[in-house]
Write a structure and sequence with these properties.
Oligomer: single chain
Mean pLDDT: 95
Distance between the termini: 23 Å
CATH class: Alpha Beta
Radius of gyration: 19 Å
Number of strands: 15
Largest sheet: 8 strands, parallel, barrel
Strand content: 15-25%
């Protein structure tokens, strides 16, 4: 498994300060030891309105020259709305993202079923406002509402899968709420869409928050024929012995020590996954002296995250080689 940097980390949403340009993200990835870059499909990084073919070719060459190719683009789409005009604008957005992904030379476009969005305020990004708006837009309660949203999302993914096939792009459906509650829902949706161009983006932090306690079993549920993209997140710090340790954020804002990435990496090795896991820092960050931390916080965590996951991957590789030789 390869270690990538997801550009949302430097989107200027969560830390205090401006976003980096994509050129600067590419340079950060090279400097911190990442093996590739995933571009977030929104402004100021990867909205297709801003990335015509010529600009995509420029970024593609820049990333290749730096030794950190663009391996994926991330859509921030929502096909769940009961309002047809809303769904149609989302379809137009994803169709252009597919074109942009191909122009960037990336093989994969990450997809949601539904994504409420993020709002920006004086203290940076927050999820709660957009989530309330999303719930209001559903305008129904109970199982019937969820099933109707499910059908709308399935229809949107079916249409997008056709466009992706035309461009040689693989869509990677993430195990991300709402509508998708866990990796079983993700697999059910992929099966119902039933298109070779729609595969899986199984993420360990989401699975952990969704109650998964056996990452290797969950990885086996997904399988090597479906898994084409992944992400990891959280914050990192060194212990007294200099080892990097992870910290995980939960839906309620609490933090606990990370303990599951080792099993996740072993699970990815079990299924033969050799694609990317991209680091993302995408939650409200701490405040110091009443101010949200700055970009130096993102830099520190991006550096430590790369070191941490590279270490886990190397340990699993060493263990596998030892078992094979014995």
């Amino acid at each position: 498994m390869k270690v990538g940097l997801y550009s949302i980390t430097y989107l200027g949403v969560w830390y205090r300060g401006s976003a980096l340009t994509l050129e600067q993200v590419i340079e950060r990835a090279r400097r911190f030891g990442y093996e590739g870059v995933e571009v977030d499909g929104k402004r100021p990084h990867g909205n297709p309105l801003d990335l015509p073919a010529a600009r995509c070719r420029e970024l593609r060459l820049r990333a290749a020259d730096a030794g950190v190719p663009i391996y994926a683009v991330a859509a921030n789409n929502d096909f769940s709305s009961p309002i047809p005009e809303h769904r149609e604008t989302q379809l137009a957005y994803v169709k252009e993202l597919i074109r942009m992904t191909a122009d960037l030379g990336a093989p994969v476009l990450r997809m949601f079923c539904a994504w409420p969005g993020v709002t920006l305020g004086e203290d940076g990004g927050r999820y709660d406002v957009a989530q309330r708006v999303w719930r209001i837009a559903q305008h129904e309660e109970g199982d019937a509402a969820k099933e109707r949203a499910w059908v709308r999302c399935r229809e949107g993914l079916v249409e997008c899968a056709g466009w992706a096939a035309e461009h040689g792009i693989t869509l990677a459906l993430q195990n991300h709420p709402p509508v998708i509650d866990d990796h079983h829902d993700m697999l059910r949706m992929i099966a119902e869409v039933d298109a070779p161009s729609l595969k899986a983006c199984f993420d360990a932090p989401l699975a952990h928050m969704q109650g998964v306690t056996d990452m290797r079993r969950a990885a086996a549920d997904v399988g090597g024929s479906l898994q084409v993209l992944s992400h990891f997140g959280g914050e990192y710090e060194r212990d007294a012995d200099g080892r990097v340790q992870g910290v995980v954020w939960h839906w309620d804002g609490s933090r606990t020590p990370e303990h599951f990435y080792g099993d996740f990496v072993r699970g990815m090795a079990d299924i033969g996954y050799e694609g990317f896991a991209g680091y993302e820092l995408c939650h409200p960050l701490p405040k110091v002296d009443g101010k949200t931390v700055g970009i130096e916080f993102a830099d520190l965590n991006a550096q430590l995250a790369a070191e941490y996951l590279h270490g886990l991957v190397a340990a699993v590789k060493t263990r596998t080689m030892a078992q094979t030789s014995s």
